[in-house]
Input
Amino acid sequence: MGLAESCAKRRLWTLAAWMFFVLQLWFPSLLFAAPPLLRCEIREGDQIFTADFGPGSDPYAVEPKEINARFLFKAVMIGGEQNIEYIKIYTYYKEQHQVVLIHEVKYLPPFRQSEPSFAALTGINYLYAPVLERELQYGCTLLEGPP
Output
């Protein structure tokens, strides 16, 4: 084996090692990219609740979160892990024998995420129950994946 052939093999192995290193850094992020996560902070009375919602294809399969036995809060994120079509948020007030929708909102892409805030997507919303005027506040942000 000549000197030129030895140098060529060494360069080839060095190039292969660098490519392997770059692929190790880049490729797993494509394979194992975490799905987006909608994190909502809900305040009612003197309590704060945190609810996380992931993407899905069936809005009826999403279970609402019960808030202090007075409200139900549900966020639906429709789409795949890489492409969210829309986000809908529903808030219901629980009366004695029925559940009443008091708030529904829909967000379409591109989703606002300019500031690092718990309410970056929605801003802070103030909702009031029809009976006794109980107040519920919420704000949601869209995260790239579970923190």
